[in-house]
Amino acid sequence: MADRTTPGGDTVAGIGEFGLIGAMTEGRAQPSTTLLGPGDDAAVVAAPDGRVVATTDVLVQNVHFRFGWSSPAHVGRKAVAVNLADIAAMGAVPTSVLVGLACPPDTETSVVTQLVDGMWEEAARARVGIVGGDVVRAEELVLSITALGDLGGRPPVTRSGARPGDVVAVCGRLGWAAAGLAVLGRGFRSPVGVVNAQRSPEPPYAAGPAAAIAGATAMIDVSDGLLADLGHLALASGVGIDVQTDRLTLDQKLVDVGTALGADPMRWVLTGGEDHALAATFPSYTDLPEGWTRIGTVLLPDTGVTVDGRPYDGETGWEHWR
Ligand SMILES: Nc1ncnc2c1ncn2[C@@H]1O[C@H](COP(=O)(O)OP(=O)(O)OP(=O)(O)O)[C@@H](O)[C@H]1O
Ligand SMILES: Cc1ncc(C[n+]2csc(CCOP(=O)(O)O)c2C)c(N)n1
Ligand SMILES: [Mg+2]
Ligand SMILES: [Mg+2]
Ligand SMILES: [Mg+2]
């Protein structure tokens, strides 16, 4: 493998490490919560609450995305969105994002700047800045994003607070990204709704703090699959959960794609990840916040995650190395 490509502005090897950092950071306006932005050994960000919520998710080319399926801007948006969803799932509001980029020397500089455009686009949706990062050489493109958040004086909403009798509710799309993956995997590019949902999710960020304020007892974002992620929540809380399929909306779009591909759309809804909907439990007397829909009930310990009262037959979600 060539160690370097010919010097020039077209590739990351051509512009070099510090040229690349410049291309990724110059001309980006930081919000006022960024007290010291990129350029020093570390950034300084305001932490109004005094506590900092911190999370990291890594995205790897050909594992989490393909450039044949997604534009660099879509990938950048997705990389930030999956992290901001974890901040929202704690009931917090994001404050800043850091970006680790590993890529081969022949990566076009324009691919990186489009990635960064996508990251900033998603960051702007949540009114946060990209305050720092790192760039390194690697054989494949990898994005490692860290997001920080603020709890606004509230306790964090953990995975472990669900209690028997609570209602289980979701906010956001389910099954769309999985349908999009099935479409792209068959070599199609439409319908664009589900395909774009796979390319970059649209997590309902504001629904996290809203759930916290409404008294959510536990919360998680659906990254791996509804049943798998409710399984994490149930395990952490020491409870069982039953999901009622008649409460899950099956969008006509998913029905149509399922029919076209000969696939069961309810399986995408129950086990497809990557839409980063929020799933939470609330005391039964709670008026659910806007956008939240009841989908099930928290049961006594040791009942596992069931669907319509029965154990689910098949994989409940994505797991790396399986
Ligand atoms: N290498 C690691 N070192 C320390 N903690 C880790 C490591 N990997 C994961 N964790 C922690 O384990 C917990 C579960 O990780 P996981 O990656 O499943 O969470 P997630 O980001 O919510 O899910 P996803 O990766 O599917 O988006 C998190 O609290 C995470 O910080
Ligand atoms: C090219 C390609 N192949 C497969 C998939 C499906 N996929 C990858 S990771 C993941 C779960 C979330 O990841 P993580 O747990 O790391 O957050 C899913 C459903 C994809 N998006 N792109
Ligand atoms: Mg998560
Ligand atoms: Mg995550
Ligand atoms: Mg996962």
Automatic annotation (TrEMBL):
Transmembrane segments: none annotated. Residues 39-149 form the PurM-like N-terminal domain. This is Thiamine-monophosphate kinase. Keywords: ATP-binding, Kinase, Magnesium, Metal-binding, Nucleotide-binding, Thiamine biosynthesis, Transferase. Substrate binds at residues 64, 274, 318. Residues 163-253 form the PurM-like C-terminal domain. GO terms for biological process: thiamine biosynthetic process; thiamine diphosphate biosynthetic process. Catalyzes the ATP-dependent phosphorylation of thiamine-monophosphate (TMP) to form thiamine-pyrophosphate (TPP), the active form of vitamin B1. Mg(2+) 4 binds at residues 41, 55, 86. Belongs to the thiamine-monophosphate kinase family. It comes from the Bacteria. Its EC number is 2.7.4.16. GO terms for molecular function: ATP binding; magnesium ion binding; thiamine-phosphate kinase activity. InterPro entries: PurM-like_C_dom, PurM-like_C_sf, PurM-like_N, PurM-like_N_sf, ThiL-like. Mg(2+) 2 binds at residues 57, 86. It catalyses: thiamine phosphate + ATP = thiamine diphosphate + ADP. PANTHER family: THIAMINE-MONOPHOSPHATE KINASE. Mg(2+) 3 binds at residues 41, 86, 221. Mg(2+) 5 binds at residue 224. Mg(2+) 1 binds at residues 56-57, 134. ATP binds at residues 133-134, 159, 223. Reaction mechanism of ThiL seems to utilize a direct, inline transfer of the gamma-phosphate of ATP to TMP rather than a phosphorylated enzyme intermediate.
